[in-house]
Structure to design on (490 residues):
DNA sequence: CACAAGCGAGAGCACTGCTCTCGAATCGGA
DNA sequence: TCCGATTCGAGAGCAGTGCTCTCGCTTGTG
């Protein structure tokens, strides 16, 4: 990619990384709202004004953290999808069963990352920060998880097809437009269901993480796994055999 | 309820209301993170220290706003459910169809309130504020929307029943526990689906409100209506007639 | 080698949440 | 009616914040 030209540039990269690292640490301790540039600088043994050589404002630091967080949660999702790209050991289970397992595995990986990095998750999927509107740099990384979900749906569709009821007229055109850019091979009904499932997935995670399930849902792993499976069913990833009775 | 005893108490109530009103105004302008007690006090023509007679800290002011917001969005949901308690004009449509319409109407009302009060919505369903853990006063108001969703499901179940596939073992006991407190008459599978649908509903709303649908979903009313209908189907609120082919 | 660019340090400004003290207004009981 | 107690607004003050500007020192480049 970009090559390091000299000692100055190398130092700049290292200091930038150290600032983000320390900021992430303080973020995990006290949350985004209490994250202060001065405290980060103090902890790094530099004076606050020096930090402005690396990030022009507090919002720019937060933006960098947001991009990193999107990348990290996207990488977790991609890794989970990659791990199940081919049938592992057990030979039983149809290809469609495999894609459903992939789907729930991706959902579980996203949730796992969120539980492990609650404040970074809140940074990207909680309320947008003060008067802050996402700059263009974030939209790429922000779509990584969505792209993984699309890829799983595409693999399943290439396998044996995803059947969904057709959509109301207005939505059908909309779904065709969305699908045209992201997944031209998928039926509009699947595209529409995918977008909804994508949002709903983060609804489940956010409610768990932000305390709405407090004293309500206890068996959270099982609850989430089941709900993720239902989301998969909603986009057409059905279990191969429907158990009779 | 509580009666006003004298001029002092009446003044206190009025000033408290004025502070919250002004705080809400500034909240809508600049978001929760930039809401400052001093600015509120300044706008009200009082000195900042005087404001502490009414709210011991900034977090307490935010807590009051949170409770009000939960109450407002809960009231919006309750109103929508009440409006459709009995079949309006059109006589066609089975009772189950009515409950599905009630369900989507409640979802739409919640979304409408969120779109009209984005910052207040972010306050309650966005990231929890700085190191702030919800005090006990909020859990009552926080559950109003959920209770409305439960009530619609209960009315539908009393009508002609809600059929849901049974749950995996671990979840069945969990759903029975949850249902025991909130809706003893509902089958565990419905309870479980309700909790998931509740979280997923706010996933849809949050993604729209927090900009994740930017340049992705354009026909948002139609998209949401359809997704809310699918959520209703997920708890067993099926359309009376399944269109063949 | 000289010039320019990058960098850290320090001072400073306007702002914040919050505390404390001090009078004035108000209330309740005798 | 009066008087002590409570409540309240005003002001000063403290520690902390984001951010700017200036001043030298260091480092890379022509």
């Amino acid at each position: 990619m970009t090559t390091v030209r000299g000692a100055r540039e190398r130092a700049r990269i290292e200091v930038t990384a150290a600032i983000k690292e320390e900021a992430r640490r303080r973020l995990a301790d006290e949350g985004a709202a209490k994250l202060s540039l001065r405290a980060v600088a103090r902890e790094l043994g530099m004076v606050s004004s020096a930090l402005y050589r690396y990030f022009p404002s507090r919002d720019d630091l937060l933006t960098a953290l947001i991009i990193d967080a999107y990348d990290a949660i996207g990488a977790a999702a991609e890794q989970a999808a990659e791990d199940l790209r081919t049938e592992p050991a057990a030979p039983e289970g149809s290809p469609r069963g495999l894609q459903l397992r992939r789907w729930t595995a991706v959902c579980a990986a996203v949730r796992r990352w969120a539980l492990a990095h609650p404040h970074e998750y809140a940074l990207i999927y909680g309320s947008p920060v003060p008067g802050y509107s996402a700059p263009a740099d974030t939209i790429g990384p922000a779509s990584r998880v969505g792209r993984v979900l699309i890829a799983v749906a595409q693999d399943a569709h290439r396998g044996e097809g995803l059947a969904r009821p057709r959509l109301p007229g207005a939505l059908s055109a909309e779904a065709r437009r969305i699908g045209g850019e992201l997944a031209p091979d998928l039926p509009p009904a699947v595209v529409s269901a995918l977008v909804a499932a994508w949002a709903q997935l983060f609804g489940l995670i956010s409610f768990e993480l932000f305390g709405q399930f407090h004293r309500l849902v206890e068996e959270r792993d099982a609850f989430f796994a089941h709900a993720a499976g239902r989301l998969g069913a909603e986009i057409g990833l059905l279990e191969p055999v429907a158990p009779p009775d």
User: Anything to note?
Assistant: Chain B touches chain A through 52 residues (CB under 8 Å). The two ends of chain B are 58 Å apart (CA to CA). Residues 41 and 161 of chain B are 55 Å apart (CA to CA). Residues 5-8, 36-39, 48-49, 52, 57-58 of chain B lie near DNA strand C (CB under 10 Å from a C1').
